[in-house]
Amino acid sequence: VYTIFSKVHSDRNVYPSAGVLFVHVLEREYFKGEFPPYPKPGEISNDPITFNTNLMGYPDRPGWLRYIQRTPYSDGVLYGSPTAENVGKPTIIEITAYNRRTFETARHNLIINIMSAEDFPLPYQAEFFIKNMNVEEMLASEVLGDFLGAVKNVWQPERLNAINITSALDRGGRVPLPINDMKEGVYVMVGADVPFSSCLREVENPQNQLRCSQEMEPVITCDKKFRTQFYIDWCKISLVDKTKQVSTYQEVIRGEGILPDGGEYKPPSDSLKSRDYYTDFLITLAVPSAVALVLFLILAYIMCCRREGVEKRNMQTPDIQLVHHSAIQKSTKELRDMSKNREIAWPLSTLPVFHPVTGEIIPPLHTDSYESTNMPLMETQQNLPHQTQIPQQQTTG
């Protein structure tokens, strides 16, 4: 119980220096005892644990602080280079641990008290690109110590500090293929208080610059002191001498495309009068409505009040055309009515009305008992069963 309550919600204070690399490891073993069921002494548990870090009161960390954790079974690492602007201001980082098996959480605060470093910043800074390391491997104290020891043997400074470490992925690098244990690479910046050694200056030789432009490895005499553990890309080394840096401020020559300086922005005061938008609203709504109403009235007058009508159309149509049209309508109506019931009498339009010789009206050609469904719609005079014979002239006597 004492172990549990001594760890839960406990605050840790760290005191990094501004301009010097800060590394803080979030150990999984530190949080394992805070998740129930609590392990007994000597019991080993390997639950997956992940961490979430943020500045107290904010959703993310400060800009200078990074965090990395490869898998839930590895430790998390907070690292970065504090800035001089945060000196004397405590930075509280909330660390929340999640047990991915039991879904339990534990939280404690990390208080970062940034101190001012002596002779900050170091005037001579060199950035190396190490191809065979990942950032979490380089952050290990023993690995970083070995690299600083190799740089110290080459540079021979009195003070040497690691300023910053950046993953190649944060510089636009690509994720390597998962073959041959390829690494993503890491940039390591170190600073010293003495000028660069002749070995580091060999990168600036014209011969080596030419070889780098041809994507060939330059010839560096001190590379063998790193090659045993670190593979350095000498074409990507950066040497910065802050003692020779001068102000690069140039007066802006105003011309095309450059707006004149309008001075400092002055927001409107809170004493502005409120504006009434009721009149603007009515104008915006009334004008389109009035135009739409006028167009509707014009269209209604044309469609309803200017109609000529059926009677005027019939008066302007010739009588013979109306008769033909009426006959066609009557025949069409009669055929439609006949199709509904085939037992009705034949249409009058298909029957002979006058005797072909005498001109007398003749009765229908079939009786009511005749099977009309078996008779075709139209028959010729030769196929009629009751065809009338033309009377022969009889001689007297």
UniProtKB/TrEMBL annotation:
InterPro entries registered for this protein in UniProt: Cadg, Sarcoglycan_alpha/epsilon, Sarcoglycan_C, Sarcoglycan_N
Transmembrane segments: 281-304
Domain spans labelled Dystroglycan-type cadherin-like: 13-121
One Pfam family named in its UniProt record: Sarcoglycan_2_C
Name of the protein: Epsilon-sarcoglycan
Protein topology in the membrane: Single-pass membrane protein
Domain of life assignment: Eukaryota
Any coiled-coil regions, as ranges: none
SMART domains named among the record's database cross-references: CADG (SM00736)
Leader peptide range in chain numbering: none
Role description: Component of the sarcoglycan complex, a subcomplex of the dystrophin-glycoprotein complex which forms a link between the F-actin cytoskeleton and the extracellular matrix.
Taxonomic classification: Eukaryota, Metazoa, Chordata, Craniata, Vertebrata
